[in-house]
Amino acid sequence: MPDYRIIDRDEDLPPVIDALLAEPRYALDTEFHRERTYWPKVALVQIAWPDDLVLIDPLSVDLSPLRPVMDSDALAVLHAASQDLEVLELACGAVPKRLFDTQIAAGFLGMSTPSLASLHERELNLSLTKSSRLTDWLERPLGKAQLYYAASDVDRLLEIHDRLHAQLEERGRVGWADAECEIMRTKWRGPRDPDEAWRKIKEARHLKGKALTIVRAVAGWRERRAAEIDQPVRFVLSDIAVVGVAQAAPTTTEELAKVRGVDKGLARGSLGPMILEAVGEGIASDWRPPRPARRPADTRDLRPAVALVAAWVNQLARDRALDPALLATRADVEALVRGDDDARLATGWRAELAGGPIRRLVAGDAALAFEDGAVVLEERSGRAVT
User: Fold this and answer.
1) Is residue 155 a contact partner of residue 53, using CB atoms and an 8 Å limit?
2) What are the backbone angles phi and psi of residue 8, rounded to the nearest 5°?
3) Strand, coil or helix: what is 198?
4) CATH architecture group of domain 5-186
5) pTM of the shown model
6) Which CATH class is domain 299-379?
7) Which of 43, 144, 305, 339 could potentially form a cystine with 296 if both were Cys, beta carbons 3.0 to 4.6 Å apart?
């Protein structure tokens, strides 16, 4: 059972920060909820370093003083860090300057997006408790089972880092993992663009003309309103209502109240005029969706080639003990075959491992064959099969 300290007073945080600033690395995790809010609400921060482990209660402690730790040269070890980084940026105003994501690292060792529990089992032969996985982390006081669960997530994470790093070194893949972790660390996590919110509504993509400009305006208003009051967008207005408003183009409260998905009370309340104003903006707008960029070839003509190359990429990943999804998705393959300048397979370790050979294939200098149940890339003979 991990030993831990609870930090639930502001005056207890500075000694923790001083200790962390003297460490070369630390393990970090967060517990948060976003089911009922627009922004993720942090409920607990767990940090471990040699001989110490703290559980910081953000409902009682200001987390902003942790920023110097984030800005330090210490290596932050996290698992599946994407959402944790978003939480830290909101709570501390920064993310760690250096990051090692154990899930990403595991992908370079052949594991397919493993859970933290599966890494504990594989690397340490330990079973993590799952009893509090779906708990309400915002309740207070937190029970012993909850605190134990939270502490366990970081208690042995530095050991897992040691083991994964050693395996990466053995395979010459430390640079690959570092590059991928840096992409994760620096990824844009800012507010969603309200003008692009309509694209997340499946039914909105089929609208045309004024219905499209209205749905863009109403979805944008909904996004801004949700961020302002910190509620999920569906709590402000449902997707069905957004599309219904776009199709009906109401100009009065009475017309708005008849739209499917729009509650009569909402239409006649304070939000009704706001929605009608957004409808008016949409009607007056001359916006049109940008035309897709011209591509060197018709995607439909590339389907056979993409399917074959994707099969080889998956085979290559398995042969090299890589998570296939980490190496390339089908969309990545299509982008490279199509000749996109920003194709992921065109740069970095992906280009080194797969992008270069694929370019040779597209240029006609190599060929794919089926051998012993596997797709292989080989030198092209130039001799036609008759």
Assistant:
1) yes
2) -130, 20
3) helix
4) 2-Layer Sandwich (3.30)
5) 0.89
6) mainly alpha
7) 339
